[in-house]
Amino acid sequence: MNPRVDLAQKRGELRDHIRDAAIAEFAENGLRGASTQAIADRAGITKTKLHYYIDSKEDLYQQSLDHIVGIWEELFDGIPLDLGPEAFLSFYITRKISFSIHHPAEVRMFANEIMRGAPMLRSHWAGSRASTLRAAARIEDWVSAGLIRQVDPMLLQFNIWALTEHYALMAPEVRYMLGLAEDAPLDEAKIAAEVTMLVLRGLKP
Amino acid sequence: MNPRVDLAQKRGELRDHIRDAAIAEFAENGLRGASTQAIADRAGITKTKLHYYIDSKEDLYQQSLDHIVGIWEELFDGIPLDLGPEAFLSFYITRKISFSIHHPAEVRMFANEIMRGAPMLRSHWAGSRASTLRAAARIEDWVSAGLIRQVDPMLLQFNIWALTEHYALMAPEVRYMLGLAEDAPLDEAKIAAEVTMLVLRGLKP
Amino acid sequence: MNPRVDLAQKRGELRDHIRDAAIAEFAENGLRGASTQAIADRAGITKTKLHYYIDSKEDLYQQSLDHIVGIWEELFDGIPLDLGPEAFLSFYITRKISFSIHHPAEVRMFANEIMRGAPMLRSHWAGSRASTLRAAARIEDWVSAGLIRQVDPMLLQFNIWALTEHYALMAPEVRYMLGLAEDAPLDEAKIAAEVTMLVLRGLKP
Amino acid sequence: MNPRVDLAQKRGELRDHIRDAAIAEFAENGLRGASTQAIADRAGITKTKLHYYIDSKEDLYQQSLDHIVGIWEELFDGIPLDLGPEAFLSFYITRKISFSIHHPAEVRMFANEIMRGAPMLRSHWAGSRASTLRAAARIEDWVSAGLIRQVDPMLLQFNIWALTEHYALMAPEVRYMLGLAEDAPLDEAKIAAEVTMLVLRGLKP
DNA sequence: GATGAATGAGGGTTCATTCAT
DNA sequence: TATGAATGAACCCTCATTCAT
Hints:
The structure is a homotetramer. By secondary structure, the first copy, chain A, is mostly helical. The first copy, chain A, has two domains: 1-54, Homeodomain-like (Arc Repressor Mutant, subunit A), CATH 1.10.10; 58-203, Tetracycline Repressor, domain 2 (Orthogonal Bundle). Chain A is built from ten helices and no strands. Chain A has helices spanning 3-33, 36-43, 47-53, 57-77, 85-102, 104-115, 122-144, 153-169, 171-178, 188-203. At the A-B interface, helix 1, helix 6, helix 7, helix 8 and helix 9 of A face helix 1, helix 6, helix 7, helix 8 and helix 9 of B.
């Protein structure tokens, strides 16, 4: 075994560990409200050690944000583009709800950044917008082909984002209203089914 | 004119002004990330003067939260209860989207609090849950009467919340994707129409 | 009745009331540690009203100190000077212990000022020293006359002050060690008797 | 030389240095009146550095108090218990007066705490009381054995405390009355002799 | 004479970061 | 690479006092 590889790997793992701790802290308290001490605590290291691995809090924030965007894009890379609306949307919604339920911190940190006006996210938005516009075009095609009713293709996408991200952002509220314990798992399948049905039926020609 | 009334009014206005400044700051930075200095700056007063009017940052936060909950409840008091699903839902959605678009800070602060686990909101939730359960019962009635399709009445409500609040929470993203300027007004009527249609059609029996 | 007299009297009473509140607060927290808010609270008035009646915290402190010195001097004015040591000392000790037990705050505030180096008491000390030296001379006379043993007349006075003031300064400790409740009265007569006996026997030729 | 030892030692010394500065400040101004800025100034460090070494002002106060209690107990550990009253008392008084004269700040801080009702000292008092009661029993034995006159054993102890602590608490007054400069040393031997004589003679059967 | 509002200075404490080793 | 020590800026808040009526 090459010990240098092990070391590098270990360091990489620690970096990932730090990033996850940071995402959790940023999700809960935002950039300003997050403290490097809290991040260090979550990561189980000292504050000094944390600062040895990062350049600054803002930099760690940016990194974490980039990481989330990366996951996001990756997540929808694998969906076949030539499916009809029904298959595509149910696929997309299911996957996104699954991610929201299992990675709420990522979604919350992302939303938090947008709520602040997204000053550190704007660099990613150009690409994001391009693919959103492409998706809009495809939706228009569906409309033209009579596969779905007349609909605003941009607002439709926003609405789907709203529906799927809600179960990450507002999970505590959802749990409380359902009478679930704070750590109880949400019924991913049921939620995905309800949302999918709402959207698909809502789009029927 | 009675000067005493003027004074009291002025004070009341200042208090409201402070609360609005606080909501804006809390919406952007959360409880921890908000600084009393920033709130004072937004309100156009000195930090000392701010602290003359409030007991503590946490207290101001709680007050602001209570205020938002108050508005919220008031907002839906006036909706006639005996309307059918179509009228009721379009009424409700329209009103809520209007509020979201015109008072995004209130919605964001609220969401922020929930993302943190809602430690300071829990006191309000008991009442909130009761009315949510009542609404669920009404929805079940609509289902029984065949007015809408079979649907989970709790998830339906969550979905409507998601759709309506999204245009407050994610307004910067929405604007960017639509190619609008940062301060451009969102087309309230169109958004309400699209969301209403999605929901009403999505619920057709 | 002359209402103007009543008013003046009322004001005078309030001033006394404030002074007593101040002494209590200064006794417990010293000049720096005392807050005008706390003094106002003890006096049952608002802070603004307090500041209407005083010039400054330091001034109130000085006034209170002067008042205590005045009481002090008055207290020993009435003791006949031509008594022998036995009568004089028992008289003096009894009176001083009585004052200490019934007015601990005054004694504590005084002691507090001395512990700080007595910066605001020095003006009174010239007179104080003169009478202490006079008393020392009288004690020397008693020694010369063979009424008491050879003793340092200054240290004797310090020792008597120590013994008598202790029951004001350290009352909480005394009470605790005796197993008394925090508000239980100290047995003035017994304490005076013990101290007197210690001193008188301790001075026997 | 081991540099690690040096460092640890240095740190320990700084901690001691801070504690001494704190005792001096607390002695003069009490807990409320003492400022961390003033303590830092006395210790010759910045306020931030001070706060790096302490948890809070209150904690530093408690620590300092504990330290004093520790010294106190240590101070009287070495006195042989089987001495007769004369030897024991002269030993005890001499030692306590010596401490009072050389460590007035410690005694003053202690007294200050008691004057405030000893809220942070009460934990130590249980043990203190036990040993005071034991000492009282020994005094009773002396009385029974006819070695000293009938005396209240608790009040006797209070009186000795009063006499010995006075030269710490009221040193400025003592100095002024004796015509000494503010920093002039007190004549430890003479004071101890006078107090010892007063007590021993005052207890003669 | 009396009082709610206002304020500059300072209170104790935490912050993200850098230093020194 | 790693870490305890250190630090200037900023944090929330209270202070004694003055203002304005």
